[in-house]
């Protein structure tokens, strides 16, 4: 069943964007939609995003763009909340779609192998893996693209997607005529 955001007179669609394990390049490209961001803000209620100061992911979100891969337990927790509370979840950019650059650590071994390499083998002083809670989120054994963890409704490729592609996708979703890619295709850059 295809998810379509129906415009209603009762309220504007609730829009969210989130940043998991990645570089934030997709959100930088999102900001490159320039003055259209004002038009977007008039068409939707922005209820969660790294570009606004909202701490907890809300319920009843119509459209969620999620950037980045699932690299640690914090990312996993946020993604599960987003999926639970969103009607349409769009994997936003190649890290979300395929793991891309964020997943480059996967061939290097387990999370413990990576931490040992960075915090013990590559340092001269205080050679220890951070272990106190809230110092470093617990790494997942492997970095995963979103669709390996939750159901993804659509994919917006690019590293990062262009501002024009982001705008086009959002215009289609808001018009109720999305022509977004419905399956992940391994495509980088």
Going by helix content, strand content and strand pairing, the class is alpha/beta
Low-confidence stretches: none
Strand order of the largest sheet: 2-1-3-5-7
Element-level helix/strand string: EHHEEEHEHHEEH
What is the number of helices?
Answer: 6
* Radius of gyration, CA atoms, in whole angstroms: 18 Å
Average predicted local confidence, pLDDT: 88
Overall 3D form: elongated
Strand content is 15-25%
Tally the beta strands. 7
The profile of the biggest β sheet is: 5 strands, parallel
Distance between the ends: 30 Å
Q: Please estimate the helix content.
A: 25-40%
Which key features would you list for this structure?
189 residues; alpha/beta; five-stranded parallel beta sheet; 7 strands; 30% helix
SSE topology:
Layout: E1 14-19, H1 25-31, H2 36-43, E2 45-48, E3 61-67, E4 70-72, H3 73-85, E5 86-92, H4 94-98, H5 111-121, E6 139-144, E7 154-156, H6 163-175
Parallel strand pairs: 1-2, 1-3, 3-5, 5-7
Antiparallel strand pairs: 4-6
Task: Give a written overview of the molecule.
The protein is of the alpha/beta class and 189 residues long. The chain is built from six helices and seven strands, in the order βααβββαβααββα. A five-stranded parallel β-sheet has the order 2-1-3-5-7, sandwiched between helices. The two termini are 30 Å apart. The model has no long low-confidence stretch (mean pLDDT 88).
């Amino acid at each position: 069943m295809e998810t379509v955001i129906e415009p209603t007179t009762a309220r504007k669609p609730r829009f969210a964007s989130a940043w998991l394990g990645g570089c934030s390049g997709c959100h930088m490209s999102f900001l490159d939609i320039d003055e259209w961001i004002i038009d977007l803000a008039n068409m939707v209620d922005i209820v969660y995003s790294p570009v606004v100061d909202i701490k907890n992911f809300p319920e009843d979100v119509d459209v969620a763009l999620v950037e980045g891969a699932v690299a640690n337990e914090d990312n996993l927790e946020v993604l599960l909340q987003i999926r639970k509370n969103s009607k349409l979840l769009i994997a936003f950019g190649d890290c979300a779609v395929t793991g891309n650059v964020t997943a480059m650590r996967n061939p290097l071994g387990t999370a413990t192998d990576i931490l040992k390499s960075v915090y013990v083998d590559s340092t001269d002083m205080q050679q220890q893996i951070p272990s106190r809670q809230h110092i470093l989120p617990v790494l997942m054994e492997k970095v995963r693209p979103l669709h390996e963890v939750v159901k993804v409704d659509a994919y917006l490729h690019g590293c990062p997607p262009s501002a024009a592609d982001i705008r086009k996708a959002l215009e289609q979703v808001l018009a109720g005529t999305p022509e977004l890619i419905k399956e992940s295709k391994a495509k980088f850059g």
